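INFO  loader      accepted 1 record
INFO  loader      residues=389
INFO  predictor   begin
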Amino acid sequence: MNKQCKILIFVDWFEPGFKAGGPIRSVANFVYHLKDIYDIHLITSDRDIGEDKSYEGIPTNKWIDKNGYRILYAAPGYLTFFSLKRWIGEIFPDWIYINSMFSWTFSILPVLVHRIFYKNISVLLAPRGMLKNSALQYKQNKKRIFLKLFKSLYIPRNIIFQATDSTEKKDIDSVFGKREHVKLLPNFPGIQKRFQSVTDKKRGELRLVFVGRVHPIKNLAFLLNILATAKGKIEVTIIGSIEDKLYWKHCQTIIDRFEDRSNVKILENIAHSQLEQLIIDHHVFVLPTQGENYGHAIFESLAAGRPVLISDQTPWRNLTANNAGWDIALTDAGQFKKIIAVLVDMDITQLNVWCEGAWIYCNEYLTSSDLKKNYTDLLEKDNLCRKEF
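INFO  predictor   done
INFO  writer      dumping tokens
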């Protein structure tokens, strides 16, 4: 392995941003695990998702040396076809790593520049779950146009796709065909700390935490409809940005049906550094998502020793057999209601069995995987993909 091997990463949002959720964590963990091995450059936007101001105290449109890597925070309009041509040419990386599917600035322009000027540079594109049917149904016209352009320029033939699980591989195959180059590479996880048990659970009470953008794909309304008629004292904390204001209004109409609306609270603008303790302060993590290609918040709950109640549309499966939680089909709302009732009725001893099970499930996942070797095996053989195209 050679530190001179260069990787140029494109991602719409990055630290200190946090509102975009999973994609930021995916790339941050990638950089953390590989920055001591590779020469990493990262280009991102100069503000968090939905913000109209740059990050305070961070220079824009220039390279900054961070702890083991370099980063450029680009102001709106700074990255153009020709400025990207210049930056890619100056860095001339061994790999371009794109972490989006439909971003004009951080995926479409870079692949066009690559296609025209830099075909000898290897490209790894992570769709980040954007090719799931549940994701493609939003802004359909825009996505159809891009995919048509993508295929007409034969771009898929000149890049490697990263699938983080077998389901995402099927999604990529269904859009681009099985002849395309797809590598199965799970996301790098975060770090697990020591186990902390629940200290204050009583029968008849339950504290739930929902972590995710307020957007239809995260399916908050589904959860609220179930909780609106559930028995017991149930508190739910929603942690995430309100990305779809119309959808949030719909959710509020459901909250109005609760006996006590104060049992539902939303926390926006929560930095990632605060998330672990907030999860630990609750009994169970819940996310009936319509689709996740990884689900960093799910991982972080398991890592913190809190069981998860989620849909079966994520890579985190067989939870119940491991006393780590429940992965339930979205067509079975009755089963969600049943598990909520079981959780409400649990005492502290019963719940801590599941908490410990969640922590062990995560720990076994971490100790059994050798992701760094899987990534370096691909990145060190980049000449192979150049020869094949």
